[in-house]
Amino acid sequence: MGTLLWTLGTPPAWKATIVFFNIISAVVAKRHTVFWNSTNTRLTAGDLSVQLNFNDYLDIHCPHYPNEEAVGHGQPETLALYLVGEESFQGCVETRGAIKRWECNTPFAPYGPVRFSEKIQRFTPFSLGFEFLPGRHYYYSSLPTDEGPPLPCMKLRVTVCCAPNPAPLHLPYLSRVLSISLLYLHIYSYSPTPRLPVSLLRSISVTHTLCGECVGMRMHEAGEMGAN
To answer: 75 Cβ partners below 8 Å, 6+ apart?
Structure first.
């Protein structure tokens, strides 16, 4: 009889791997919170800017009031948030190219302010999700809804880190190249009749740069190995 690879109650290896990577992603990712209302002077001044990495979250908290008495004689703030181009961002105006992301229209939500979360990701499986590119700037601004009072221009600039760099040479490939190079050096240097001239062996040099850190491996004067 065969043996079971896994028993009831024990998750298979592939599921454990997925859970592991989800945990790692959650630990690495950060959440950046913005309270979107007219009392946030950074928003109204137009100088609020945040830099996010992929898998980070931008959490937008809508205007909220515990009860109607907290509003006083005025109206509760209600607004819609848009992703806009840089030109529209300067003036907080709705344009044809603006993308409506969320609408804050529940100022008396019973369990606290309504929160909308934007995950910074290159690809999204959701139709309402937004896909971001590294090294780009994205602009959020809001407009009051018809039901709410007039509001000042509130806006936020999001920068997605970082600009793409040329793909580095992978370390496993480098290791194979170095192993082959060293093998040939050993054969040609110690062979009684080396097939390569010593002057050519002296010129062999391998340098590799990986992820911005220089990993230098150089082999100079290889011909002298045979002479010694």
So the answer is: 147, 148, 149
Predicted pLDDT of residue 224: 46
Report which secondary-structure segment, H or E, holds 155: strand 155-160
Label residue 113 exposed, middle or buried (CB < 10 Å: 0-12, 13-18, 19+).
middle
Distance CA 165, CA 179 (A): 27
Q: Is the pTM of this model over 0.85?
A: no
Residue type, 206: V
Residue 51's pLDDT is: 96
CA distance 184 to 206: 14
Give the tens place of pLDDT for each residue, 194-213: 555 545 444 444 433 333 33
What gap in Å lies between CA 45 and CA 153, rounded to an integer? 8
Q: What is the pLDDT of residue 92?
A: 74
Q: Which domains can be identified in the chain, with CATH numbers?
A: 23-160 (2.60.40.420), 171-227 (no CATH)
- Looking at residue 101, its pLDDT comes to 93
| C-alpha torsion angle, residues 109, 111, 116, 120 (rounded to 10) | 170
Q: Is 113 left (phi over 0), alpha (psi -120 to 50) or beta?
A: beta
Q: Give the mean model confidence (pLDDT) for residues 28-52.
A: 93
Residue 139: how many other CB atoms lie within 10 Å: 19
